[in-house]
Design goal:
The protein has 2 domains: about 220 residues, 3-Layer(aba) Sandwich (Rossmann fold), CATH 3.40.50.300; about 70 residues, Alpha-L RNA-binding motif (Alpha-Beta Plaits), CATH 3.30.70.1560. The chain is built from 10 helices and 14 strands. It is α/β, with parallel strands linked by helices. The longest helix has 16 residues.
């Protein structure tokens, strides 16, 4: 499956939800839609699945010599933002019903179900009613429901929601397994560390517009030559105080006396350290490379400076 989105826009009244967004997704890719709430991610997903139509621009989905203007339901696995299972029914009855809605035979549905229940450590709970499960286990059932029918494209809205770190890693393995089966995956998530492990390409949005796009290496290059300094100091200090001393830097507090400073190309490392030495007793200084989380924060801060409205 190939998916091409060309300059799509979508308005809701006076709100420009999506502004001339373009991207391409190749077959078998894991593609991440990133951005804060209200960035336009859900609006794009709704257009991709045909729930709404773009006001302008085009969506082209190519699959087995057929072309569509949205992802056909028979090719789609979808984990929506608003979940929808039957709490008074068992895991097996929920999954079997949804699989058969997608056209799977009972035998094939049970076969696929057994595989994914084992992956998520739910095999011995298949007869339990959904309402008896924790939120995290309900989330795992939702993920299984999205892929039982082996769709060509899987769209997952916040797949890590409600999961502890161990189960988040299980979802990472689950997504890698989908890729190995040849499925194309679009995921919308806030967990940057998970996305960095998985995504072949990503699109970072804010207020309906594309801010950064491409592979992680592409995004690092687009974000510009940024440097990071991890510092530790003797006494506790507030981030707000550091921000007063170092205006314009992106500062993340790691603990009461440990901080991560992100500098742009225009900001001097030596001048920053000189200012800090005048104010604090530093015990450790270490240069680091910005990860996706820091690039995301930096890009959001720069976008707000350019477009404060």
């Amino acid at each position: 499956m190939q998916l091409s989105v060309s300059t799509i826009s979508k308005d809701y009244g006076d709100i420009a939800a999506v502004r001339k967004v373009s991207f391409q997704i190749n077959s078998g890719d894991i593609f991440a839609l990133l951005g804060p709430n209200g960035a336009g991610k859900s609006s794009i997903i709704r257009m991709l699945v045909g729930m709404t139509r773009p006001d302008s621009g085009t969506i082209q989905v190519s699959h087995q010599n057929e072309v569509y203007d949205h992802v056909p339901r028979r090719l789609l696995g979808y984990l929506p933002e608003d979940r929808g299972l039957y709490p008074d029914k068992s895991i097996e009855k929920n999954l079997l019903y949804l699989a058969q809605l997608h056209g799977l035979s009972k035998q094939k549905a049970l076969q696929e179900m057994a595989h994914w229940l084992e992956v998520f450590d739910l095999s011995d709970r298949r007869d339990e009613e959904l309402k008896q499960l924790s939120k995290g286990n309900q989330q795992k059932v939702q993920l299984i429901a999205a892929v039982l029918h082996q769709p060509a494209l899987v769209i997952l809205d916040e797949p890590f929601s409600g999961l502890d770190p161990i189960n988040q890693e299980k979802v990472v393995g689950f997504l890698k397994a989908l890729k190995s089966r040849g499925m194309t995956v679009i995921l919308s998530a806030h967990q940057m560390a998970m996305v960095e492990k998985l995504a072949d390409h990503m699109l970072l949005m804010a207020r309906g517009s594309v801010i950064l796009a491409g592979t992680l290496a592409d995004i690092q290059q687009q974000a510009g030559p940024q440097r990071q300094i991890a510092i530790s100091c003797t006494d506790a200090v507030e981030v707000e105080q550091l921000q007063q001393w170092l205006p314009g830097l992106t500062i993340e507090g790691l603990s009461a006396n440990k901080f991560l400073l992100t500098l742009t190309a225009e900001q001097s490392v030596s001048a920053t350290l000189k200012r800090l030495v005048n104010e604090l007793e530093l015990t450790q200084v270490e240069m680091q490379t910005a990860d996706l989380h820091q690039l995301y924060l930096m890009a959001m801060a720069q976008h707000q400076q350019r477009d404060p409205a």
